[in-house]
Amino acid sequence: MLSPQSEEPARRRPTKEGEADVPRTQVGARIPSTIAKRLARYCFEEGQSQQKAVSEALDEFLRSYGY
């Protein structure tokens, strides 16, 4: 990956301890605004990213159905 200002490879954000360096894919979904507000509040109060919160919740949901 190249950074926009130079031809040098862009630096990757260092992973947090315990966070696996796994490939990521962007997924879009329209959710009710009430859920989005609850998610934002949870993430603010817990100091967690929305990406991590949604990823963990979706993983738990899918595992509960055997996926």
Automatic annotation (TrEMBL):
Q: Choose any GO biological process term that the UniProt entry carries and state it.
A: regulation of DNA-templated transcription
Q: Where is this region: Disordered?
A: 1-28
Top-rank taxon of the source lineage equals Bacteria
Output compositional bias ranges, type Basic and acidic residues: 8-22
* Name assigned to this protein: Uncharacterized protein
